[in-house]
Amino acid sequence: MAQLTGPHASAQIYAAGAPIGAATGAIILLHGRGGSAADILGLGPEIAPDGVTFLAPQAVSHTWYPSSFLAPIEQNEPWLSSALALVESAFQRCLAAGLPAERIAIAGFSQGACLSTEFVARNPRRYAALIAFTGGLIGPPGMDLHHPGSGQNVLGGTPVLFSSGDPDPHVPWVRVEDSARELKSMGAEVSLLQHTLRPHTILPQETEAARAILEQAFTAPAA
């Protein structure tokens, strides 16, 4: 496994749920700006069936990157690249434990949802699922959001949930829609939930929607 570099090189990855060696699947959980691995680990049992392991990296200084996800990408470097490498490290830990990619889900809230979405788009394969609570692809307004594999089936039917408030103080609804459209073009099966005047949080109906997707993802026979 490649050595981590950059601002998140010394970051810890915390675990909960089923032991990874005996788990039926895994969810990599990514917290929001100002949040913590401990916070987001509490979300795991709400959205996943029994038998799943949870891995939650802890961002250095509780933020994955310093500026808005809508800032020019170079403005968020080297933090963004370091954060993506940390997610990859958690993903590789799952693979090393014997879990195939189609049994590994990526999920996050707010800044963590943006990081989750960007990771999946930059590393396209068949995942168990992507769950993005209030987030979307990273980059400034007007940026071409196309990624390698756009227009192809590189995500292989990965179930994706985008769920966000409209309006949201940090994530414009149009970016959620554009992100959903891009991942669909990459072969994902996308569900898009819009919550009018919802505060910047996760509603019970959002966790219920995520759980429905993940229960199906982790009970279906592995490819």
How would you summarize the topology of this molecule?
Blueprint (H helix, E strand, L loop, with lengths): L12 E5 L7 E6 L6 H5 L2 H4 L4 E6 L21 H18 L7 E6 L1 H12 L6 E5 L25 E8 L6 H13 L3 E8 L7 H16 L4
Parallel strand pairs: 2-3, 2-4, 4-5, 5-6, 6-7
Antiparallel strand pairs: 1-3
Characterization of the model:
The chain has a single domain (20-141, 150-219), classed as Alpha/Beta hydrolase fold, catalytic domain (Rossmann fold), CATH 3.40.50.1820. The longest helix has 18 residues, at 79-96. Helix 3 packs across helix 4 (111-122). 30% of the residues lie in helices and 20% in strands. It contains 6 helices and 7 strands; from the N terminus they run E-E-H-H-E-H-E-H-E-E-H-E-H. It has 223 residues and is α/β, with parallel strands linked by helices.
